Amino acid sequence: MQACESVLQFVVADGLLSATLLLGPRLPRRSFTQARNTAGITKQEGFRLPLIIVAFQLLERYFIALVTRLVLKQIMTVAAEMFSNWNDISSSGGSYYFVHEIGHNLQVGPATLLHGGETTNEVYLIYSGQEMFGKLRHGADRDVGKWQHTTYNGVGLGYYTYLHVLFGYGLIGNVFTSALRNSDVLHAEEVKAQYWLQQVCNETGYNLLPFHELWNFPVTEETRSICDPLPCFFPEDEFTAKAPDKVSKILTAYGKECIRHNPKQVVFRGDLWRGVDVRGPQFVFLHDDEEC
């Protein structure tokens, strides 16, 4: 016999939560009769059994709803604070949470390297934080943690911060733009990694392959043929000083002199302010001269 559905409903509603909780199915009457006879319960006592079960179900669901409401309210309070606390936003170099989420819609897939799905969406925070607030939110991070590895495992946000500080925002901007124009062939990780290396060498005018050995990038002969003729640049700073053995091994294997300081800056060939203060024909909101 199919269990019949309870007709009881419990509704919890406030500004954060509006939920309707249906009590679970009750046992068929035959099941209650069998259970009553087996336990030696009288008919009068057995009549109360379904009501007791329903009462416990109601209390259980009320407790769950109450806890859920309190948890959601706390989450919403914390979220509102994270997204709207101007003191935190201005002092830390931008709204990380807004940029992180909106950045997913602006993410350059063809230039997103291994495990970079939650990384390249935040690259825009590097430029906006420095230009608008004069501060890099993760300014001390250069992704040095990955230098301890012996295999390539992608790059973190600190890697892009490093490139930004060394060569200016034009490097990442130009390579992103180039990758978008060649998106039809940039699908496999192996292809994207080689394209990235070739482009950073071309854009900077330096052989950056030794530098990228810190992250254990795989390098093909084609990529070497493009980068090797260029003068080497390998930074000498407080960050590379944290991995002296690996740096020494890389430079010894390279066997030629590298420029260590004051690299040339890459000029961005695009327009970061394109479209700002310009209302196009597809503007979806009401215009000033239109009636509501």
What does this structure look like?
The chain is mostly helical and 292 residues long. The protein folds into two domains: 9-84, no CATH class; 86-259, no CATH class. Helix content is 49%, strand content 5%. The chain contains twelve helices and four strands; from the N terminus they run E-E-H-H-H-H-H-H-H-H-H-H-H-E-H-E. The chain has a two-stranded antiparallel sheet. Helix 12 (244-254) links the parallel strand 3 and strand 4 (258-259). Residues 87-215 form the Peptidase M60 domain. It comes from Clonorchis sinensis (Chinese liver fluke). This is Peptidase M60 domain-containing protein.
Main structural class = mainly alpha
Termini, distance in Å?
A: 59 Å
DSSP helix count?
12
Secondary structure tally: strands? 4
Number of domains: 2
User: What would you report as the Rg, rounded to the nearest angstrom?
Assistant: 30 Å
Q: Describe the biggest sheet?
A: 2 strands, antiparallel
From the structure provided, what is the oligomeric state, counting identical versus distinct chains?
single chain
In the predicted model, the low-confidence regions spanning at least 5 consecutive residues are 1-32
Helix content: 40-55%
Mean pLDDT: 78
H-E order: EEHHHHHHHHHHHEHE
Report the principal-axis shape: elongated
**Main sheet: which strands, in order across?**
1-2
User: What percentage of amino acids are in beta strands?
Assistant: under 5%
Can you describe this structure in just a few lines?
The protein is mainly alpha-helical. The protein is built from 12 helices and 4 strands, in the order E-E-H-H-H-H-H-H-H-H-H-H-H-E-H-E.
